[in-house]
């Protein structure tokens, strides 16, 4: 990854944080995640503020609430009229789910999804939809970076290959059905909070006393320490953040102990 020293109109981002307020599964750190990511994109990578679309439950504009419709509309905006050398970012902090599938597109037999604020009435956004909306149309010369801080997010963009930091190996994630899941010539890269079968979590252990997503916090800290960083270095730096928190006994809740019991299950995916 590289940082920018000047503002760049060819950079565009959608930052989505879903809190699910007043529900038993409410999250406390997602809005903080969006705020921190926005600051990073502007001050480290030269994004223009007007080219960043924020969707959280704190936004006054109804079109900026993280509903299913608004997220899908933001996907369309993100890649509309992209040209070579443009860079686009999709960031999501919220809940993710798994769903049995029967069309032969998933090696493990499950679709992954992200949960909009209205997912109980309007439905989730499946990995198939994310792929067809922001991955498949990606033109030559355009790079998409997706960061998904949610449970079951390992292959949530349905990209063709995954790299697991715990094994140091690339795995073919191509669908058994043979369906094409790549781009239209562009490059898609996804950093996910955990493997498809695992859980992510909010924590106050990694960003002072402020609640935030564990993956988001480790990513931001790693980038701030070294803005010009390779992907391999980034994954190692994120792991170091987690290891330091482990050594200081900060990660002592049952969920976090399970999530970080060994190496962080960080997945990076590329198209074919």
TrEMBL record:
Its GO CC terms are: cytoplasm
Q: What is the lineage of its organism?
A: Eukaryota, Viridiplantae, Streptophyta, Embryophyta, Tracheophyta
BP-aspect Gene Ontology terms? proteolysis
Q: What species is this protein from? A: Eucalyptus grandis (Flooded gum)
Query: What Pfam family does this protein match (any one)?
Result: Peptidase_C14
Spell out the protein name for this chain: Peptidase C14 caspase domain-containing protein
The entry sums up its family as follows: Belongs to the peptidase C14B family.
Molecular function GO labels = cysteine-type endopeptidase activity
Task: Please list the residue ranges annotated as the Peptidase C14 caspase domain.
Answer: 11-258
Q: Which InterPro entries match?
A: Caspase-like_dom_sf (IPR029030), Metacaspase (IPR050452), Pept_C14_caspase (IPR011600)
Superkingdom, according to UniProt?
A: Eukaryota
